[in-house]
Amino acid sequence: MKIIVMKQHDQHWDAFAQQIQSVTWTAGRHLAYLMYNHAFLDWERVIVFSDHGQLVGFCALLEHDIVPAVQSPFVGYVFVNNSYRGQGLSEQLVSRAETLAQQLGFDTTYIVTRHVGLYERLGYELFDHRQDRFGRENRMLMKSLKLMS
Protein backbone atom coordinates (compact mmCIF):
# COMPACT_ATOMS: atom_id res chain seq x y z
CA MET A 1 0.00 0.00 0.00
CA LYS A 2 1.29 3.48 -0.80
CA ILE A 3 0.34 7.13 -0.55
CA ILE A 4 0.14 9.09 -3.79
CA VAL A 5 0.05 12.89 -3.72
CA MET A 6 -1.54 14.32 -6.84
CA LYS A 7 -1.97 17.74 -8.30
CA GLN A 8 -4.35 18.58 -11.09
CA HIS A 9 -3.40 16.97 -14.43
CA ASP A 10 -1.13 14.31 -12.87
CA GLN A 11 -1.16 10.98 -14.69
CA HIS A 12 -3.32 9.18 -12.09
CA TRP A 13 -5.73 12.11 -11.56
CA ASP A 14 -8.62 10.89 -13.74
CA ALA A 15 -8.32 7.24 -12.70
CA PHE A 16 -8.53 8.13 -9.01
CA ALA A 17 -11.29 10.68 -9.65
CA GLN A 18 -13.31 7.82 -11.12
CA GLN A 19 -12.65 5.61 -8.08
CA ILE A 20 -13.41 8.47 -5.66
CA GLN A 21 -16.69 9.10 -7.48
CA SER A 22 -17.78 5.51 -6.82
CA VAL A 23 -17.48 5.64 -3.00
CA THR A 24 -20.74 5.68 -1.08
CA TRP A 25 -19.97 8.94 0.75
CA THR A 26 -21.60 11.95 -0.93
CA ALA A 27 -18.64 14.21 -0.19
CA GLY A 28 -16.40 11.83 -2.12
CA ARG A 29 -18.59 12.28 -5.17
CA HIS A 30 -18.28 16.05 -4.75
CA LEU A 31 -14.49 15.80 -4.62
CA ALA A 32 -14.56 13.72 -7.81
CA TYR A 33 -16.74 16.40 -9.43
CA LEU A 34 -14.13 19.04 -8.53
CA MET A 35 -11.39 16.81 -9.91
CA TYR A 36 -13.21 16.18 -13.20
CA ASN A 37 -13.85 19.91 -13.60
CA HIS A 38 -10.25 20.89 -12.80
CA ALA A 39 -11.41 23.20 -10.03
CA PHE A 40 -8.09 23.14 -8.16
CA LEU A 41 -5.53 25.84 -7.50
CA ASP A 42 -1.91 25.09 -8.38
CA TRP A 43 -0.97 24.31 -4.78
CA GLU A 44 -4.04 22.23 -3.88
CA ARG A 45 -3.58 18.46 -3.71
CA VAL A 46 -5.52 15.21 -3.52
CA ILE A 47 -3.82 12.51 -1.47
CA VAL A 48 -4.80 8.87 -1.92
CA PHE A 49 -3.90 5.57 -0.33
CA SER A 50 -3.63 2.98 -3.07
CA ASP A 51 -3.33 -0.78 -2.81
CA HIS A 52 -2.13 -2.09 -6.20
CA GLY A 53 -3.98 0.71 -8.01
CA GLN A 54 -7.17 0.34 -6.00
CA LEU A 55 -8.39 3.24 -3.89
CA VAL A 56 -8.16 2.62 -0.16
CA GLY A 57 -8.65 6.16 1.15
CA PHE A 58 -8.18 9.80 0.33
CA CYS A 59 -8.13 13.38 1.53
CA ALA A 60 -7.46 16.77 0.01
CA LEU A 61 -5.52 19.90 0.91
CA LEU A 62 -7.69 22.80 -0.25
CA GLU A 63 -8.13 26.54 0.05
CA HIS A 64 -11.85 26.22 0.94
CA ASP A 65 -14.14 23.66 2.52
CA ILE A 66 -17.86 23.35 3.11
CA VAL A 67 -18.18 26.37 5.44
CA PRO A 68 -17.55 30.01 4.62
CA ALA A 69 -14.21 30.94 6.16
CA VAL A 70 -11.23 33.19 5.59
CA GLN A 71 -8.88 30.62 7.11
CA SER A 72 -6.86 28.36 4.85
CA PRO A 73 -5.76 25.67 4.04
CA PHE A 74 -8.26 22.96 4.89
CA VAL A 75 -7.60 19.26 5.20
CA GLY A 76 -10.86 17.90 3.86
CA TYR A 77 -12.63 14.94 2.35
CA VAL A 78 -10.89 12.49 4.70
CA PHE A 79 -12.17 9.00 3.86
CA VAL A 80 -10.99 5.41 4.31
CA ASN A 81 -12.84 2.38 2.90
CA ASN A 82 -14.58 0.29 5.56
CA SER A 83 -12.38 -2.76 5.04
CA TYR A 84 -9.24 -0.71 5.78
CA ARG A 85 -10.45 1.19 8.84
CA GLY A 86 -8.77 0.80 12.20
CA GLN A 87 -5.25 0.78 10.73
CA GLY A 88 -4.41 4.46 11.28
CA LEU A 89 -4.76 5.37 7.61
CA SER A 90 -6.83 8.51 8.29
CA GLU A 91 -4.10 9.75 10.57
CA GLN A 92 -1.47 9.08 7.90
CA LEU A 93 -3.49 10.93 5.26
CA VAL A 94 -3.97 13.95 7.53
CA SER A 95 -0.29 13.90 8.49
CA ARG A 96 0.75 13.91 4.83
CA ALA A 97 -1.59 16.85 4.15
CA GLU A 98 -0.09 18.74 7.10
CA THR A 99 3.43 18.11 5.84
CA LEU A 100 2.45 19.39 2.39
CA ALA A 101 0.85 22.48 3.91
CA GLN A 102 4.01 23.17 5.87
CA GLN A 103 6.16 22.74 2.76
CA LEU A 104 3.90 25.23 0.98
CA GLY A 105 4.57 27.80 3.71
CA PHE A 106 1.39 27.46 5.79
CA ASP A 107 1.75 27.43 9.57
CA THR A 108 -1.77 26.23 10.42
CA THR A 109 -4.23 23.73 8.98
CA TYR A 110 -7.99 23.65 9.47
CA ILE A 111 -10.58 20.88 9.49
CA VAL A 112 -14.36 21.15 9.32
CA THR A 113 -16.18 18.20 10.89
CA ARG A 114 -19.21 17.10 12.84
CA HIS A 115 -17.22 14.23 14.37
CA VAL A 116 -15.51 14.38 17.75
CA GLY A 117 -12.30 12.61 18.71
CA LEU A 118 -10.18 11.63 15.70
CA TYR A 119 -8.80 15.04 14.86
CA GLU A 120 -8.40 16.08 18.49
CA ARG A 121 -6.13 13.03 18.94
CA LEU A 122 -4.05 14.44 16.09
CA GLY A 123 -3.57 17.77 17.85
CA TYR A 124 -6.49 19.76 16.42
CA GLU A 125 -8.37 22.15 18.67
CA LEU A 126 -11.90 23.49 18.41
CA PHE A 127 -12.01 27.21 17.67
CA ASP A 128 -15.46 27.84 16.18
CA HIS A 129 -18.82 26.43 15.12
CA ARG A 130 -20.17 27.29 11.67
CA GLN A 131 -23.05 26.24 9.49
CA ASP A 132 -22.19 24.64 6.18
CA ARG A 133 -23.94 25.46 2.92
CA PHE A 134 -26.58 22.83 3.74
CA GLY A 135 -27.43 24.45 7.09
CA ARG A 136 -25.71 21.80 9.21
CA GLU A 137 -23.75 22.81 12.29
CA ASN A 138 -20.05 21.96 11.98
CA ARG A 139 -17.05 22.19 14.24
CA MET A 140 -14.04 24.17 12.98
CA LEU A 141 -10.76 22.80 14.21
CA MET A 142 -7.25 24.15 13.81
CA LYS A 143 -3.72 22.89 14.35
CA SER A 144 -0.52 24.89 14.49
CA LEU A 145 2.13 23.34 12.28
CA LYS A 146 4.87 25.35 13.96
CA LEU A 147 5.07 22.62 16.58
CA MET A 148 5.84 20.05 13.86
CA SER A 149 9.10 21.69 12.77
Automatic annotation (TrEMBL):
Protein name: Acetyltransferase, GNAT family
A GO cellular-component term linked to this record: cytoplasm
Classification via InterPro entries: Acyl_CoA_acyltransferase, GNAT_dom, NAA80
Pfam families in the record: Acetyltransf_7
Top-level taxon in the UniProt lineage: Bacteria
Domain N-acetyltransferase: 1-148
SUPFAM superfamilies linked: Acyl-CoA N-acyltransferases (Nat)
Record key words, sorted: Transferase
GO MF assignments: acetyl-CoA binding; N-acetyltransferase activity
